[in-house]
Each structure stands twice: as C-alpha cells, then as structure tokens.
Amino acid sequence: MNTFYLVRHGMKEKSVGDVKLSIEGIQQAKKTASYFENKKMKEIFSSPLRRAKEMAMYISDSTKISVREDIRLRERANWGGYTRTIL
C-alpha cells in the first residue's frame, strides 16, 4: 500500500507574485520537516513556485530525498496576498 502526503506551503510574505516564505512560514516548514524526518518516503514533488520549493527543500534536507519540481503542480492563479471577492 502506498501513502501520499499532501503538504501546502507555509505562510508566505505579504506581497503579490512568486514570494518566499515568511519567518512564520519558515518555522512551519521546519516543524513539518521534523514530522517527516523518520517517515519512509521515496519521492518529494514540488510546484515551481518559490514558497512551495522552499517548503519542499526543508523536507528534503530532513529526509535526504531530493525534490522533483513538476510544472503541473503550479497553481493556475497566483493572487499573492490579494483576496478576491466574487459577487
């Protein structure tokens, strides 16, 4: 049986575009990485967005598994810190 873990990136900087993790997001990434440290995993995939790659790299450092970037995992709309209201 295979187990899949889906992890969302941590908190990001409050800006628009392809922003990096905030200080809080880095703390979340480190905590997440420690959770995965002793899990038996074979692969780590990440979207090409900076914050997702950063999150994946923390997990990679903890598990010693390289990250495979996959363009198909990129979100289709990158609103950054912008919240959209639909009427």
TrEMBL record:
Top-level taxon of origin: Bacteria
PANTHER family (UniProt xref): BROAD-SPECIFICITY PHOSPHATASE YOR283W-RELATED, PHOSPHATASE C1620.13-RELATED
Protein name, entry field: Broad specificity phosphatase PhoE
Organism: Metabacillus niabensis
Lineage: Bacteria, Bacillati, Bacillota, Bacilli, Bacillales
